[in-house]
Amino acid sequence: MENATKNKVDPIHYEAARFVTFYVALIDGLSPALTATIALTPFILAIAGLISTSNAYIISLALSLITLFALGIYLGKVAKENGWIYGIAMLTVGAFTALIIFLIQLFAHF
Fold it and tell me: What single DSSP character describes residue 22?
């Protein structure tokens, strides 16, 4: 920024750039951690003996799909488009990705 402005950076812009950098790094770090925590919570409950492992798989899948749909709705709102369409698109891509991973894992043993 200093090179682009020939070392004449307004202190407000400098502080704003520092804040935005920290904010973006925080969001980029916390969002995957939060998403993983949501998907892993049923398995933690299964380890604690509160639910069965088979139920943990089903609940984790449902929570992951709900999270994807919510992310799609959010992205639709940010893009000022139909959030439901974005949500369904995210669900479709997520389900297709899970299917591909399942098939690769199934046929990797041959």
Answer: H
Averages of pLDDT over runs of 10 residues in the chain (110 residues) are: 56 72 84 91 96 95 92 92 94 92 85
- Residues 76 and 85: beta-carbon distance below 8 Å: yes
DSSP assignment of 43-95 equals HHHHHTTSS-HHHHHHHHHHHHHHHHHHHHHHHHHHTTS-HHHHHHHHHHHHH
For residue 14, what are the CA distances in angstroms to 2, 53, 78?
Answer: 9, 51, 26
Q: What is the residue type of 89?
A: A
pTM: 0.70
